[in-house]
Amino acid sequence: MPQVIPEKYKDLFDKPAFAHLATIMPDGRPQVTPVWVAFDGRYVHVNTAVGRQKDRNLSRDGRVALSILDPANPYRYLEVRGKVAERTEKGADESIDALSQRYIGKAYPFRQPGEKRVLFKIEPEHVTAMG
Amino acid sequence: MPQVIPEKYKDLFDKPAFAHLATIMPDGRPQVTPVWVAFDGRYVHVNTAVGRQKDRNLSRDGRVALSILDPANPYRYLEVRGKVAERTEKGADESIDALSQRYIGKAYPFRQPGEKRVLFKIEPEHVTAMG
Question: To the nearest whole angstrom, how far is the Cα of B89 from the nearest Cα of chain A?
Answer without folding.
Answer: 25
